[in-house]
Amino acid sequence: VVRTGPGGRHDHQARRWFARADGGYSAAVAVATYPGTVSPLRGLDPYTEAERDVLYGQDTARDELSRLVTADGFRAGLLYGECGVGKTSLIRAGLIPHLRDHGVVAVLCADPTQPTQSLAVGMSALGMQPQVGENAGAFLARIVSNAVAGQQFVFVSDDADEVCQDERRVTELSELFGNVQREAVSLQLQD
Question: Of 46, 97, 103, 109, whose CB neighbour count within 10 A is largest?
Fold first, then answer.
């Protein structure tokens, strides 16, 4: 039996945990592939954006999710399902690159312990840079408010359960999205 970690928790070090006959768990070495190849048989390790070409059978789900998050009036959503069904792979190797291919600025919150900073780092990786002394929240609000008319932004937190366990993180994201919304409305009123 392969699990993501003791108690079913995701292990970010990408070890695989195997159930022992005595009820405990032991770590095992990851399955090897030929050098330079990516195996489409990954077990519970999620696909990344770099492996989007070997993510099979998710086109319909990806397209439906893409239509949902880019629809007029969409503000927030929650993708949920059993552990190990492929939610993270769908988001990281399916949805995010698909959105970017279609002109949407899609940014992943890679570190749920510092959501605003993580989203700012993700935005910087796309080529947009903060001004000297600008904090992460102000940087994100500025980028969104200065975007060309019709530009869509999708901010993704893959580990919503981790974010929601800490009231400080929930408040941080709430304030961030409130500031972004106020900046965007302010810009529309000035035009």
Answer: 109
